[in-house]
Amino acid sequence: MPENSEPDSSTPGNSSTDASDPTSTPRPDEPSDAAPTSPTLTTDPPPSDSPTRAAPPPRRTPHVAWWVSRHTDVVFPRSTLLSALAVGVLGALCWRPADLGIGLTITGIAAVATVMWSAPDDFRRRLSPYWIAVMVGVVALLLVPTFRAAGWVTVFCLFAAVVASAALFVEARGIRGLWLASLSPFLAPFLAAVTAVRRPPRVARTGTRPSITLIAVVATTTIVLLVVFGALFASADATFGSLFKIQISTDAGPTIAAALFSGIFVAVVTLGGIALVSQGTDYPDRPRPTTPIWAWATPVGALFAMFLLFLGVQATAWFGGDDFVRRTADLTYSQYAVQGFWQLLIVGVLVIGVTVSAWHFVDADDARSRRAARILLGGLCIATLAVGASAIHRMTGYIHSYGMTEERIFGIFVELLVGIVIVGFLIAGARMSTVWLTKSIVVAGLFATVGFAAINPDQRIASYNIDRFETAGKLDTFYLGGLSADASGEFDRLPADLRACVDWRFARDHDAARSWRAFTFSRYTPPAQADRWYDEHCVRHVTHR
């Protein structure tokens, strides 16, 4: 209230108003010494002919600012802060960004378990059994670093675990849920920092004696400041360091810095996850769309027509074979196959965005809108599946000609993930309901990633390329030796001279002396002299990829 505003005489809780109101009835046991006053006449304001502006309707769609403000109102109990700090200490001991092994598994499982332990009981009750399925998949992905040595597989599994956890923590449902889930990993550190410093209001102390907590905070802050700045000064100036007889080992500096970074990062991520699940996320019912059907059907129909044209050209190239491609595109069939794979993969990803955006304007209560959605969006999704099949066909043809690599097998897997999402869209369109869609896609994608790690991609790559060598006599030993230890089980199939070439590359690129944090059950130690053996014979087996 501004300083020059008058108190509201109609407020029942205003003591001055109650005392001066002659119409109020005094209590029987309370004498009244106030002199009677004449009643104050009040008149209603004259009617106005101008229309009264209605109050704006409440915002129905939760936006990011609302969501952040809701979650920053959380006050963490001390036990929650201590549990996040304990996970941070564990991360400082067990995990380093460069060590992808058992340490990452231990730290990740501890962080996820702490978040779920701190979640409200209502959260687990409302989302059961969905949260159980997600947690089983996340733990399986976090076990991958312990059983797989391929760093690219570990990173992708860790990314999938973060995405699935974010979707669970914000209770992602529909377009808005996916939007918040995609932003939550970036907002979680901010939420953790804000909520960590928020404390409940305390009653002011009447005495002058400081609290034990305040004394501990002041003492800890003083010691940390003196140690940090004193160590910096001592390492910068030998004379200053000699005053305290401090000997700073330059080798310990990076180790301490890495441990501090790992511990702080893990603690912040854990606290951010707790902040996400602490309040929950409310998704109001979607308002009925008012956009006319033609407004969204026109661009979707035009895009659908272009898809049909593209598929017609693709069918001609498929049945025409290498001769047709040479005449029309002046390319070999293998060059033609690989030329558009990544573009078609991007097409599938973009169609997901187009479908989600168009669905927002579909009125499920209108028969014409439902019919248009099933024809146009359903046809677009079916055409996208056909385009995805074309992309996979292109890549498999290229793999047959030039061999399998990590990028090629990963591209095929991502195309399959896109197909899973598109199939989910088709089922949702047939039922005209998306209530279960987000959860189904999250669980299906989660366990598809677990399956991808379970097939051991690097071993599949080595097996395929060695099979190709046995039939066609072509092998890139330099690339084969660059694979992880997951592929080492296939090296025994090679002749001795080629095996030596592979071992030379493996010994050159893989450090045998690694920390225990990077331990994995998939290990391979090449012969002792492998890093010195290399001659022109290996060069002859480095083929074009």
Automatic annotation (TrEMBL):
Domain of life: Bacteria
Feature: compositional bias, Pro residues: 44-59
Residue segments, region Disordered: 1-60
Feature: compositional bias, Low complexity: 15-26, 33-43
Pfam families the record matches: DUF4153
Range of residues in the leader sequence: none
Keywords, comma-separated and alphabetical: Membrane, Transmembrane, Transmembrane helix
Parts of the chain that traverse the membrane: 75-95, 101-120, 127-144, 150-170, 177-197, 212-234, 255-276, 296-320, 341-361, 373-392, 412-430, 436-455
UniProt-recorded name of the protein: DUF4173 domain-containing protein
